[in-house]
Structures are given as structure tokens and as C-alpha cells.
Amino acid sequence: MADGDKIAPMELDEAKARELEEQFDSEIRFRPLAPLAARLVGALLVALSIFHYYTAGFGLLSEVFHRGIHLSFVLGLIFLVFPFAKKGYHEPARSTLVRPLGIPIFDWALAVGAVVAVLHVPFIPLDDLAFRVGNPTTTDVVLGGILILVLLEATRRSVGWPLPIIAVLFMAYSLYGPSMPGILVHPGASFSQLVNHLYLTSQGIYGIALGVVATYVFHFVLFGVFATRIGLGQLFLDCAAWVAGRFAGGPAKVSIFGSALFGMISGSSVANTVTVGSLTIPAMIRLGYKRQFAAAVEAASSTGGQITPPIMGAAAFLMIEFLNLPYTTIILAAIIPAFMHFFGVLIQVHFEAKRTGLRGMTREEMPDLTEAFKRDWPTVIPLVVLIGVLLSGYTPYLAAFWGITLCVLVGLINPRRRMSLKEVYEGLRDGAKYALAVGAAAATVGIIVGVVTLTGVGFKISYIVTTTAAQMAAFVGTILPVDLFGPQALTLLFTLIMTGIVCILMGCGIPTTANYIIMATIAAPTLGMLGVEPIVAHFFVFYYGVLADITPPVALAAYAAAGMAGADPFRTGNTAFRLGLGKVLVPFVFVFSPSLLLVTADFTWGNFLVAFIGCTLGITCLGAALSGFMLVRTKAWENVLLIVAAILLVAPELTSSLIGVALIMPVLLRQISGYRTGAVAL
């Protein structure tokens, strides 16, 4: 890039951001609708948002009824807006006898069938329902079977094939238990018993997963939509540019800081990518970054949105229910690991900028922060109030209620960025869009969780994993040159490795929320058997599940960024995964050093400082090795030493950390010498 070239001001066009999000996020990409059908769907989406907004502020309905209304809206709308096949995305169809309002009559039938099947259970009197659990009527079995079928089809349409296939395999396991091999054998269940468990109890479709989406997630997603629309996203980007823009590779660092701040109000990796990336990716390309690297920086940064407090996506709210902990505890535990993720991306971006000699933004290219706050300071009020209500001990959905209310009020009365009533309507409509795919996925995961509780397969899998890990540990323990790890630590290490690999593989085909629920149900108890605290185990599977958004072959955030940058999607995904490798190390650190989460039982400041320093140094070493640069270009032998040192620095033993520091010293000495003499290592 020539010195005279200018980087355009980073001004967020929310309409363009929404257009990009719909283009790259298949979970909110609806088929084109005829005008009347679009108005009907829009009204239903707004009605769903108003229902959740009202109940958040004035009291939730009974558990089954609240979840039933939510799921009936979700499934009914999915069949109206998602076509049977991808080729259904074409021009709006005309209304005919077999396509009322341009939508196939088969889809109308599925929508009606889904609503009837869902609402059957909430309208059963509680006393009667208690009697029928374990003794379902023919109507219960028929409608339960219909719900399972339409739910699987709705999930296939909105999030793809993998999750429904996994659910079908689990149901087959429950039905054919006596035919299973070895330890997996069980007495089996009849179809009637399976439907009874999944349909009439709170351990199946109407379980915790659906409840969390209907009670917490929806409200915070709606808050994020309105917070962005009133200008809080723009203010965050201006702050990020002012903090980081002046340094080497400025726009890339703005991408990281902007994604971290925007992640506070958006728990979606793709939404974060397209909103922040619409500004930072072109700026990075103009500065001189390769297209795939620019896209990868934004994708890797944006996946941090799901792990950045206070809004961390659905998984954080699920932890409340799984662990029976206040949300403030989850937020506090997430602070340091989130910092480590962004630090890991930042250090690689910094080394890349230094290696290629990329400049920062000039004073003229940076925003006027004073003017930005004069324009947008009211947009901070809803976020401050939301956090204040959360920290005061009130329920998360009440905090979201006040956050949404203040967003709308600020938007309507702020003279510098006024929001029209039409935009309020669009915010309610767009906020509900996010509920469809995640709602169907959560209900389908309820099938998987229900089979686990019905058959006890979770304990069987835990036994298989821990036994295999112990055998691997025994073998490796005989060939280690020094006794750095005891047998128990090695067993835990191999269990973590296997769990992490499964999380990543599962994440290649299913959404991060579904991934977390499945792994929390199956893998978290495995880690608990090895003495890992529940909150630590849940954070481990949560963090590895989030990696799926930048892990090829299905890396939604990376592919969205690649589409915006005009880069190769697969290469972008590989680069984004490399930039996010710090997130691979961090979960191992807080398992072996739980003090990093701040809220564990054995927390001490001494343990925290040792873990924090070791993790920071380890991520820095890994970043230098992967970038091929520290103070000057690194040599091959230096990269090897840095990678080994990184692993040792995050290990649980003080001895291993000291060995890691010793390995760094010759690299550091050679780097300082090269920097002083101006040498460039090849």
C-alpha cells in the first residue's frame, strides 16, 4: 500500500450489515416471500418478540406452557420461511391452489401439524399429565411421534443434516439396546416408552435446552439487535479504532478490539463477523494484508463474541441451569479466558504486521472519540443498566427487559440517531429470526439428552473414555524421559485431548449451542470422574465447541468473512484456526489451574498469577512460532523450541514451566542480537 493511500472512515451501515448477515448466515436466510406472506411472517415474528418481552418484564408463564408457546411459534414459522431444499431460494412464488400465499401446501400442513403437536402437552391439566407420564394415551403417542418427525425436519431445514442424524442414531440406540455390543448393551425401550419420555417429561423435547432458549437467550439476542441499531456498535468501533488504530497493522487490531467490544452485545459469531468485518476487512486489505489473512483475523476475533461477557450466547445461560449458579458467577469465570483468546489473536496479528512492515492508521484516518461520545453516549445507558441489574442479583431476563426497554427509549428520543417506529418493528422482527434455528436445535438436542437419561449411556461413554485415557497414560508414562506428570495428570490430559477432538468434530456439523449441550451431558461427567470441578468441565467443552466456527470444513464465521473479502473459504478457515490456536491452549490451562476462572473452590491469587503469567507467555511463544517472527524473523529451530516451550508453560507443573522458560532463553538472545544488528533470519 502506498503511503499516500487513505483508509476510509469506519462508519457502520447497519442495513448493509444485516444484508451481509442474511447472505452468509444460513440460519436466518429465509426463502423469498410474496408480499402478503412476508407481512404475515413478519407479524408472527413480532408477536413472538412481544410475547417474550412481556413475559420477561411481567412474569413468565408456567414452565411447560411457556416453552410450548415458544416452540409452536418456532416450528410453525420454520416451515413457512425455510424451503424443503436449498434450491427453494428463488424468486417469490405466486399464490396458487397448491401454494397458498406462494408457500407449498405441504409446508402449511407441516406448520399446522407442528403447532397442534406442540401445544397438546401444555393444554393437558397438570394432574392429568402427572398420571399419563409412564402411561401415555394413544393420542399422546401419535402426537408425540408427529412432533418428533416435524422437529427433525424443521431442524434439518434450518441448521442442516448432522444434528437430526445424531438424534435419530440416539433414538435407534434406545430402541435396540439389547442388540448393542459390550458395555453399551441395555434393556431397550419400546416406541411408546421413548415417545413418553421425550414428549411428556421435562427431560426430553421440553427440557432444559428449550427452556433456556425460551427464557434467557431470546431476550439477550433481542437486546443485542436493538443495541446495535441505536448506535452502540458504532461507538464500540470508534473506541476500538482510537485505542488500537495507531499501532502497526492498525485496522487488524481494530478488528480484534472492535469484535471484543461488539461481542459484549452479540453472542453470534457470524453476526459479529459481518457487522465488524464490513468495516475492518476492506481496511485491512487496503493496508496490505492478504485477503485470506484479513478475513481470518475478523473470523477468529468474532468467535470471541460467544465467550465475551456479559452476553455470551446460549451456552452461558445453559450453564446457569446445568450448574445452578448465578449468571454473575458465569460472567466472572469467563473474563480471563476471553482475554486470553483475544490476546492470542492480537499477538499473531502484531507479529504479522511487524514482519510485513504494515503501518498503523494516521490521525486523519482515526475517528474523533470526543465527537463519537457526544453523538452516541446515550447508547451506553441500556448496557450499563443491564449489567447493573444483573450484578444486583435479579434474573437475567429481567435485566434484558430493562435493557431492551431503554434501547427503544434511547432510540426514539436520541436526536442525533433517532430510531423510527418502523425500525422498532424491524428490530422486533429481526430479533425473532435468530430464535428459529436455535429453538429447533435446542428442542432436537432435547431428544439426545432424553435418550441419555433414559438409557444411562452417558455413564457408559464416560467409563469407556476414562479407561482408554488411563491405558494411554500408562503407555506414555513408561516412555517419558523425566517424570513431569503423574499417572492421574496424564489420564486427565488424554481425556481432555479426546474430549476436545470430539467437540471440534461435533462442531463441524452442528451449532455451538447444540454441541455444548451434548458434550455437557456426555463429556462433562467424564471430566467430573477425574476430579475436575463442574464449572471448569463445562467451560472446557464450551470453549472447544466455539472453535467450530473457525474449524474447516464447516467454519461459518470464516466462510462469512471469506465471502466479504473475496478470499478462498477453506484457506481462510485454516488461517483463522491458526489465529485461534490460543483458544486451544487456554482450556487446558484452566483445567489444570482452575484459579484462572476466578470462581473455583481452590482459588488463590498466587495460583492465579502463576497460571496467568504462564498462559500469557505460552500464547506469546505459540504466536511467534506460528507467525515466524518475534523481534526479527525466526529460524526453524527457534520455532520448534517456541512450540515446545508454549506447551510446557501451560502445563500444570512448576518444573515444566521452568523448563519452558529455559527453552525460550536461547531464542530470545538470538532475537535480541538479530534486532540490534538489523539481521533478518530466513
Automatic annotation (TrEMBL):
GO molecular function: transmembrane transporter activity
Transmembrane segments: 36-56, 68-85, 105-123, 129-152, 159-176, 204-227, 327-351, 380-413, 434-455, 489-507, 513-532, 539-561, 581-601, 608-629, 641-669
InterPro entries named among the record's database cross-references: DctM, TRAP_DctM-Dct_fused
TRAP C4-dicarboxylate transport system permease DctM subunit domain mapped to chain residues: 147-601
GO cellular component, one term: plasma membrane
UniProt-annotated location(s): Cell inner membrane
Topology term for the membrane: Multi-pass membrane protein
Primary localization class, coarse: membrane
Function: Part of the tripartite ATP-independent periplasmic (TRAP) transport system.
Protein name: TRAP transporter, 4TM/12TM fusion protein
Organism field: Pseudorhizobium banfieldiae
